[in-house]
Amino acid sequence: MLPVTVDTVRLALHILGATVWVGGQITMLYLLPTVRGLDEAAPAVVARRFNQIAWGGYALLVATGVWHLLVIDVGDRTTAYHVTLGVKLLVVALSGIGVAVHIVGRSKVALAIGGALGFLAAVAALVLGVVLRG
Question: Using CA atoms, how far apart are residues 12 and 6, in angstroms rounded to an integer?
């Protein structure tokens, strides 16, 4: 059997966070038309419940991302790596900000822009994470 290391655990936790944050958003997008048909208040109730786990996934992503940055030697990385990392950190922040705007938004425009920004930035962060991992 291959060894399970601290690095393995860190990466697994990071992937778990991404599964909850990004995968949860995809699931919510898919379920939303059905939830809307249940009751007028149902989307808000489901969204509040989802937020309880989604923000935990986001926090896990940020925590394990910081943990990763603390243990790797970024000084040995190329300029392209640093640029990619900077863009990833930006889209991680934009994802959180977009979702927060979606949560507090009251207009359809705020809900749409916040939701779209939160989701697209989350997917971008996921892709850039794979690029950085190599």
Answer: 10
Query: pTM of the full predicted structure?
Result: 0.92
What are 16-19's contacts with CB under 8 Å, separation 24+?
16/57, 16/60, 17/57, 17/58, 17/59, 17/60, 17/61, 17/64, 18/57, 18/61, 18/126, 18/129, 19/57
Helix axes 42-71, 24-38, angle to 10 degrees: 170
Q: Each residue of 37-68: pLDDT tens digit?
A: 999 999 999 999 999 999 999 999 999 999 99
Contact between residue 88 and residue 129 where contact means Cβ atoms under 8 Å apart: yes
Tokens 């979606």: give the residue.
Answer: 102
